[in-house]
Design brief:
Layout: H1 5-11, E1 14-15, E2 22-23, H2 25-47, H3 59-63, H4 68-85, H5 104-108, E3 116-133, E4 138-145, E5 149-156, H6 167-171, E6 179-188, H7 192-196, E7 203-214, H8 230-235, H9 237-243, H10 245-267, E8 271-272, E9 278-279, E10 291-294, E11 299-303, H11 308-316, E12 321-329, E13 341-350, H12 354-373, E14 377-381, E15 387-391, E16 397-400, H13 401-409, H14 422-434, H15 445-456, E17 465-468, E18 490-495, E19 498-505, H16 510-525, H17 536-543, E20 549-555, H18 556-564, H19 588-593
Parallel strand pairs: 5-7, 8-12, 16-17
Antiparallel strand pairs: 1-2, 3-4, 3-6, 4-5, 6-7, 9-11, 10-11, 12-13, 13-20, 14-15, 17-18, 18-19, 19-20
Helix pairs in contact: 9-10, 10-12, 10-18, 14-15
Length: 609
């Protein structure tokens, strides 16, 4: 009996002629009835008139698929049409913004979900960073206004105020990136999903009217991927500021730093002055200048490399304390810590010396860090990923240059008053070879000492450090040390192995100053393009009498780098100098494939300054 069971089961199955399957009688009837219903639906659909094409409710969803050029062309045509029709005009002359979004949370943060405050009309404005729709009658905008403050704008059709354009006319032409003005009132949303979780709704401005103030014709970079291309960020700083809040924070921090320095000096009795940028002689520092030409005077001139000499002339002219914050220009290489134009603060204080200025530097910079960060300790990460923890609290470490170099090289240096001789220069070449430190030509004594200092002393200066008592041959404008022949009363302040400040007791003896200038001229004759020229006007001023004076210069860009944790100077300059050529460099793998040697990673291209 068991062997016959399968044969009996097959005999009870029926053929489904559509699929070719054998199924039970009940399953076959079920399939046939479903096919009859489907056939009737198809006949009915065929007899019905064609439906009109569905109207797109969100053009922006399609626009996201466009290329940047396509988007720009379409958006430009749309805005051009609005300009022609003035319905509405997309570039109105004025919007009366009367509310500061910085106060929004403080003044309305007490509102609970579903609560509103209609007692005051708020006129706010900002750029749209996100636009979300919930049906045809409800929109949300995330805008940033008042220097980056973010707030949500909730737009409901039923809230449009009397006399304003219709809801559709207000919003159909608005896109992400546009700058809008909003008239509305404060309130807090009450989304069901949040309330069920016990969370509060979003504090928002409930709009009664939204006005396009300035359209953005380009697609903003995607919110998820952002705007990260480093070169494009430098070239399009405006877009970098729009898309990257960290960038805006860096430059607002820079502003705070400069304000603090200016306030400190003003409160200390200094007077701010302005000195010429165009000079007949490039003096006041050891650097290669930019050259230009004045057509009316048929005269070659130089962009200033330092304001030192004219500021000291003002001290001769009975100013006791002067300072200047401004741009300097040096025609040298550009790398992670150097830019052809940069910002410094220089001050000169009569009746002070370099010891006084070390104390003033500690007081100014330590106070600045405490005011800015709430602490004396900051961190800084290098381009190689090494992180330094920096303690800016006074007192700072002090290192005398020549004794430190003697310890590092194991060599006893000649007396200070012999460092300028040719014999010392030849001896130094041997020391450089012994310790494997390279100094490019011209190998002057000053340049070799600078190289050794960079190699053995600056590398130890992570926390703020004063390197003091430089040789006269390195310091043509500094005064002789009062007790150490051949040395000067000078210091350089270093942090994270980089110089941030330079100061000294000023040389005010005109005869000695002339000899120093002549030594600089000798170095220039040896091929040092950065050596200073003889400035007869400054020498004449010294002959009228410069009181005992100390001078000080701070590199503001470097200080901002360390306090905002940016290892590249281009991150702290709003508009760094960029090569106009935009040729793509070949990748190392491509170079190797062609049989050439891959380039070394670029770190620093300029000797220590």
């Amino acid at each position: 009996m068991a062997d016959q069971a399968p044969t009996e089961q097959v005999a009870n199955l029926h053929l489904d002629e559509v699929t070719g399957e054998r199924v039970s009688k009940s399953e076959l009837k079920k399939r046939q009835k479903q096919r009859e219903r489907d056939a009737k639906k198809q006949e009915k659909a065929a007899a019905a008139p064609p439906k009109p094409a569905a109207k797109k409710t969100n053009d922006e969803a399609d626009e996201k698929e466009l290329t940047p050029n396509q988007y720009f062309e379409i958006r430009s045509r749309a805005i051009t049409k609005l300009i022609e029709t003035k319905d509405p005009y997309p570039y109105p002359h004025k919007f009366h913004r009367d509310y500061d979004l910085n106060n929004f949370v403080k003044e309305y943060g007490h509102l609970k979900s579903g609560e509103h405050d209609k007692s005051r009309t708020l006129n706010v404005a900002g750029r749209i960073y996100n636009k979300r729709a919930s049906g045809n009658k409800l929109l949300f905008y995330d805008i940033r206004g008042n220097n980056g403050v973010k707030v949500q704008i909730m737009c409901q059709a039923q809230e449009v105020r009397e006399g304003a354009p219709s809801f559709e006319k207000q919003h159909d032409h608005i896109r992400r990136g546009d700058i809008i003005g909003v008239v509305g009132y404060a309130g807090r949303t009450a989304p069901k999903a949040k309330l069920e979780k016990g969370e509060e709704g979003e504090l928002s401005v409930f709009a009664t009217e939204v006005i396009l103030l300035s359209p953005c014709l380009h697609q903003l970079p995607d919110e998820y991927y952002g705007f990260k291309d480093q070169e494009q960020r430098y070239r399009k700083r405006y877009l970098d500021l729009i898309m990257n809040p960290k960038t805006a924070h860096t430059y607002r921090t820079r502003t705070k730093i400069i304000k603090y320095i200016r306030s400190y000096l003003d409160n200390a009795g200094f007077e701010e002055v302005e000195t010429p940028i165009l000079n007949q002689i490039a003096g006041g520092a050891t650097a290669k200048p930019f050259e230009s030409h004045l057509n009316d005077y048929n005269m070659d001139v130089f962009l200033r490399i330092a304001p030192e000499l004219p500021l000291k002339m003002l001290i001769v002219g009975e100013y006791d304390k002067v300072y200047e914050i401004g741009r300097l220009f040096r025609n040298e290489g550009a790398d992670l810590t150097h830019n052809p134009e940069f910002t410094t603060c220089e001050f000169y204080e009569a009746y002070a010396d370099f010891n006084d200025l070390m104390h003033r530097t500690e007081e100014l910079v330590s106070g600045l860090v405490k005011q800015l960060t709430g602490s004396y300790v900051t961190s800084f990460t290098t381009q190689h990923g090494e992180t330094y923890t920096v303690n800016w609290e006074a007192p700072w470490r002090r290192v005398e240059m020549i004794p430190a170099l003697e310890e590092a090289t194991g060599e006893k240096f000649p007396p200070g008053d012999q460092l300028h001789t040719d014999e010392t220069r030849e001896w130094l070449k041997g020391v450089m070879k012994k310790v494997n430190v390279v100094c490019p030509e011209p190998q002057t004594t000053a340049r070799m000492l600078d190289r050794l200092t960079g190699e053995f002393i600056e590398e130890t200066a992570v926390n703020p450090t004063f390197i003091t008592e430089h040789p006269k041959i390195m310091s043509p404008l500094a005064k002789d040390h009062r007790s150490k022949a051949g040395l000067t009363e000078r210091f350089e302040a270093f942090v994270c192995k980089k110089e941030i400040a330079n100061a000294y007791t000023e040389l005010n003896q005109p005869f000695e100053q002339r000899l120093r200038f002549e030594e600089q001229a000798r170095q220039k004759a040896q091929g040092d393009d950065e050596a200073q020229m003889i400035d007869e006007t400054f020498l004449n001023a010294l002959e009228y009498g410069l009181p005992p004076t100390a001078g000080w210069g701070l590199g503001i860009d470097r200080l901002v780098m360390f306090l905002t944790n940016n290892y590249s100077i281009k991150e702290v300059l709003l508009f760094p100098f960029m090569n106009p050529e935009q040729k793509r460099e070949k990748l190392p793998a491509e170079i190797e494939a062609e049989g050439a040697e891959a380039p070394q990673v670029h770190v620093e291209g300029i000797p220590h300054k």
